[in-house]
Amino acid sequence: MSRFVLVLFGASGVLALSCGASLAAREKNIVVARPFEVGASLSGNYLAAIVAGAERDTLAASTFFREALRDDPKNADLVDRAFVAALANGNMPEAMPLGARVLAHDRANGLAHLARGVDLIKSRKYAAARAEFSKGSGDRRRDITSTLLAAWSYAGAKDKKRALATLDTLNDDAFVVFRDYHAGLIADLLGDKAEAEKRFKSAYSAERNTLRLVDAYARFLATHGDREEAKRIYKSFDEVAPNHPITTAGLATLDQGNPLTPFVKSADDGAAEVLYGLGAVGGRQGDELASLIYLRLSLHLSPQNALAIVTLGDVYERMKQEEAAIDLYDSVPEDSPLRVNADVQAALLLETLGKSKEASEHLAAVVEANPKNQEALTALGNLQRSRKLFADAASTYTRILDLQPNADRSQWLLYYYRGIANERRKNWPAAEADLKKALELNPDQPLVLNYLGYSWVDQGINLDDAFRMLRRAVDLRQRDGYVVDSLGWAYYRLGRYDEAVRELEKAIDLKPSDPVINDHLGDAYWRVGRKLEAQFQWNHARDLGPEPEELPKILAKIKNGLTEKPEIAGDKSKNSGG
Asked: Where are the TPR repeats (predicted)?
């Protein structure tokens, strides 16, 4: 898929734990306090705004720039910065007047023209909006954006011919998919079924694995009577990204015989779709500020767009602005298929913030309201596992697997997770069975190959198979320090210390700050006589925050070295090969 297709559509999924439903028992919104005080001086507020902006704290940046501007209202630089900060924070009543002030001293400011044009579309002043989109200095992406938004302004004026002609100026091969995607949306909105079908077919034929296109095309088909083809479209995507809440909800609606309505019902929605696509790809490419602005403008036009809200929350998550992300997830409409996704993500962020009690209560409420929701249950199992409640985690994963008795490839991860939980609770037979089942469902999965192979080596059993698995895992994940560490540690457990050093040094290069890998390399260095280097690695492992049960062992090695005779894994089993 081309870069420009990505620009318009974004990712094929939303979040790692996406799922949706409503939390009926909800009594109040999640509130996470974020207190800060404005300064008493221009310089203090300005510096605070700069720091907040660098940290992508959009609320604080917008507040401090606004306060600084009160003290120096004619400062053009402050006006520019306050405008951008207000846009990024979604404060449109403040941003739009600031944009007008920006244009008063910088008539070529593309962002200010874009914001004004979006606001004019919202006011249904379509010709004026087009005039704004045509102004300002720009680059290739701005030209694409202005073309798409201009097309939607024609659609708002019911001028289908000019809307489609404007889109067809995007004749580069890289633009074909999103050109026809938006042409299909416009033609359908304006009642031209034949043109819409032709355009949707063209876009779908070129790109079948993009969620937004799949959903739009399936909804178009269902609306116009071809419900079976709509189901096929959803099911085809489900094979690529199983159990996505949007496709799951679409299929459920079709199976129940209920109508599926288009998600673009106006020019506002269509223009919002353009901006959503730009924001989604910007966040993934590391351009968070641009992503925030595009998504905020999208929500200005379509405030209830759950996908845009969740995507914006995800951007804040990746910027480590957990409180802002929680606020956004809490604002997802209750009837959205992404509601459970939002609740789960909010609970996990509360855990990240150290609010374990609130996280547990929130996630428990989600599971209670949605007892058969696999994503909510998976999140609960993962939370239990992270807290070392391995028996509870294994029970939760079993509960999920029982919901779908006929195992398919998508369940490998659940067997893997349950295998880890069982291994950590010292139930190796159950763990081994789970890990083998995960490999049966996904035979070349490097995480499972690594875990099962490492476990066999550590027990001194099935060594030929174990080394084959570990080498294959390294082939598949050559840049994964943990996987390379497993192979190195396997060599160590077999007494092949020179080979252990070679692999563990590679692992350290990949994961220099991991205490376990540093500890392993220290052991290997000691065994080959490099005792000074061993001491260095153990000291480094000590300083990197190892698990509490490992720290005394590391301290003992720092003090005494390795005095005991090493136990060779292969001595334990008649099935050793190495």
From this structure: 374-407, 412-445, 481-514
